[in-house]
Amino acid sequence: MCYMGGAVKKISPSILSADFTKLAEEIRVVEAAGADYLHIDVMDGRFVPNITIGPFVVEAIESMSSIPLDVHLMIDAPERYVADFAKAGSDIITVHAEASVHLHRTIQQIKELGKRAGVSINPSTPVEFLDHILGDIDLVLVMSVNPGFSGQGFIESALKKIEIIRGMLDRGNHEAELEVDGGVKVSNIGAASRAGADVFVSGSGVFGSGNYKATIEAMRKEIG
Ligand code: DX5
Ligand code: ZN
Q1: For atom 2 of ligand 1, which residue has the closest CA?
Q2: Is 41 a catalytic residue?
Q3: Gyration radius of the chain's alpha carbons
Q4: What is the pLDDT of residues 170-192, one digit of tens each?
């Protein structure tokens, strides 16, 4: 199945692969290179085996960035922190379906804070987890690696999940964006796009390349 779609496709570089000794410069360069969103990976050392950044850093990024902040919470019981990340200036707040027992309530909480609500599923989580919330959310994030680290290989079964979720969104006339995250490179972004994704997170694929602008342009060519 090949998704042609009508939505404007977006590239969301993940700053997890940026050089943190010069984060502001990295963000300026990647924005000038054509990034649509800035993907910020928040990890708690519990839901995933790594610890990254918190709301203070998001606030600092917000003060100097001019594109929407796409904040990916890989933390247990994210409902405890969505208000802090909203206050810090996140535009999209994505939580994991596996991490929030009362997911529907967490989504409402994000929306009441005036933010766009996203829900992510891990590679082993069935798409049925999304069945009853697709109409309530602004973004679905399909993990194509097990979350926790940048630089891992793309898990091919994610393509099938993207196709299925694209069908679910289209059949239900839902307007949520469909984002893919993990191992996305110039070489496989076209396949993810044809499967139906419309937002592409790339960490090492962008920040590990010598030329962010050339890489983002090459990605954009692949996704059409
Ligand atoms: C993984 C993170 C990803 C990661 C992407 O847990 O959610 O956003 O930074 O990095 P790459 O593109 O290198 O897999
Ligand atoms: Zn992420």
Answers
A1: 147
A2: yes
A3: 16
A4: 999 999 999 999 999 999 999 99
